């Protein structure tokens, strides 16, 4: 835990009592603050009270004594309308911040030079965060990983020399961190997402920009420049005198880091050097993972990690659970768990990575279905459709070979049988549902774990090494 000493002797309201909210309560109390905990969900309030925190209805109490409102990132700050607790705080002149802001203040107070790597982007941020954490561990750092990727930041160990915090940040979290100042900031990409919470894509991009615009003095801003929003952001950072490293997997760069034919290349002032190769690294297959790896490599170089350590770290990266996770092989058939592919855009990355696909898809459908994936249909040998989306996906697939399997266990059995019978040397059974899991599973992790268990129970399946 990271005790929050910056509010010692003061009273702080915490609204939103999920994992990060309760961690904030613990950290504030450990640092000497009095905490008033609240939530719109009565069960969460009861859990906080059971944990020993003072709870209250923030609609009825006086805000005069509150030094801050610590808001959970899932609670609307601006759009579609500010949450009522935000309006109450503004009326009282009380600052509204999040748990990562508390971390930033503690780091500045106690270990301002401790490395802090923050990662954001519409797509790829979890894989990039996990990869950077892996690289820093291989390099010998005491590595603390958390934020949006799972562990609440205040549940990690405190900043200190030799310890690096590798933190994934959503746009919601950035919005609640006004003094965000990582030593290395990474913006992977920007595409339309979370417009309901930011109003416009321009505002969404502006929030993302803050992470790389506010790196501390001497720090490094790493920006993927394969979309227009990020190219403009990189140009603005350049004009502001920031140390910017541009990343591309689509075009060579005169200055920056790009990927050509599976090799990560650094260019500067006309000089060109090869940093690392990605060939044969199954956990980093595909163009999207090439971008993740190039950004992670740039972060490693910014931290002084050697090229040998970088290459070894890339090769030994096991991948992120449920994201292009290789869970087994039987003969020529590879089984890949991409349960985190919960929409068509995410599934496009998976489909683009293989050419002989036995595709398991379906679940709770999202707007647009899989119509955007038609360009990948020639790669699909056969599809196996599950859940609520099965009939809709069947109509979209049209003449593409497919059957409605209904459940995951049936789909795995059918896909494994057909892939093996095909005789193809590069057959892949791919779970990348392009759907939410909520019709049959509580979350994508449970769905992916079930897939892994089903595959590994098949006769003759061996782990991928």
TrEMBL record:
Annotated Mur ligase C-terminal domain residues: 322-435
Subcellular location: Cytoplasm
Record field: catalytic activity: UDP-N-acetyl-alpha-D-muramoyl-L-alanine + D-glutamate + ATP = UDP-N-acetyl-alpha-D-muramoyl-L-alanyl-D-glutamate + ADP + phosphate + H(+)
UniProt superkingdom: Bacteria
UniProt record, GO biological process: cell division; cell wall organization; peptidoglycan biosynthetic process; regulation of cell shape
Any one GO CC term of the record: cytoplasm
Pfam families: Mur_ligase_C, Mur_ligase_M
Family of this protein: Belongs to the MurCDEF family.
The protein's name: UDP-N-acetylmuramoylalanine--D-glutamate ligase
Taxonomic placement: Bacteria, Pseudomonadati, Pseudomonadota, Alphaproteobacteria, Hyphomicrobiales
């Amino acid at each position: 835990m990271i005790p929050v000493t910056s509010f010692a002797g003061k009273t702080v309201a915490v609204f939103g009592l999920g994992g990060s909210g309760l961690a904030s309560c613990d950290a504030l109390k450990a640092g000497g603050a009095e905490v008033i905990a609240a939530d719109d969900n009565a069960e969460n309030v009861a859990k906080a009270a059971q944990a020993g925190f003072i709870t209250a209805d923030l609609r009825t109490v006086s805000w005069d004594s509150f030094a801050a409102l610590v808001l959970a990132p899932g609670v609307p700050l601006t759009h579609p309308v500010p949450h009522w607790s935000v309006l109450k705080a503004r009326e009282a002149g009380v600052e509204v911040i999040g748990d990562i802001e508390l971390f930033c203040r503690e780091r500045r107070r106690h270990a301002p030079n401790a490395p802090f790597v923050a990662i954001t982007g519409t797509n790829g941020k979890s894989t990039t965060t996990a990869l950077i954490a892996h690289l820093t561990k291989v390099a010998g750092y005491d590595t603390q990983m958390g934020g949006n990727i799972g562990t609440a930041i205040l549940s990690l160990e405190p900043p200190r020399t030799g310890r690096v915090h590798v933190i994934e940040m959503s746009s919601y979290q950035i919005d609640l961190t006004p003094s965000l100042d990582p030593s290395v900031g990474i913006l992977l990409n920007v595409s339309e997402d979370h417009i309901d919470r930011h109003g416009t894509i321009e505002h969404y991009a502006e929030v993302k920009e803050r992470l790389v615009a506010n790196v501390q003095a001497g720090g490094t801003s790493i920006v993927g420049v394969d979309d227009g929003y990020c190219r403009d952001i990189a140009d603005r950072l350049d004009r502001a005198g920031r140390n910017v490293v541009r990343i591309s997997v689509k075009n060579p760069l005169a200055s920056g880091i790009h990927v050509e034919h599976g090799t990560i290349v650094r260019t500067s002032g006309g000089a060109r050097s090869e940093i690392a190769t990605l060939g044969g690294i199954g956990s980093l297959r595909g163009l999207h993972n090439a971008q993740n790896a190039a950004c992670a490599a740039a972060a490693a170089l910014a931290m002084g990690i050697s090229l040998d350590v970088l290459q070894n770290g890339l090769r030994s990266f096991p991948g992120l659970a449920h994201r292009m996770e290789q869970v087994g092989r039987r003969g020529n058939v590879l089984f890949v768990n991409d349960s985190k592919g919960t929409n068509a855009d995410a599934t496009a990355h998976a489909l683009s990575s293989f050419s002989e696909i036995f595709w398991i898809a379906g679940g709770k459908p999202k707007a647009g279905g899989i119509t955007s994936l038609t360009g990948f249909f020639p790669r699909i040998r056969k599809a196996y459709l599950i859940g609520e989306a099965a009939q809709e996906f069947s109509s979209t697939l049209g003449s593409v070979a497919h059957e409605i399997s209904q459940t995951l266990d049936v789909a795995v059995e059918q896909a494994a049988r057909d892939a093996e019978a095909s005789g193809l040397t590069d057959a892949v059974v791919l779970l990348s549902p392009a759907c939410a899991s909520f019709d049959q599973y509580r979350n994508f992790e449970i769905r992916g774990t079930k897939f892994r268990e089903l595959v590994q129970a098949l006769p003759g399946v061996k782990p991928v090494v």
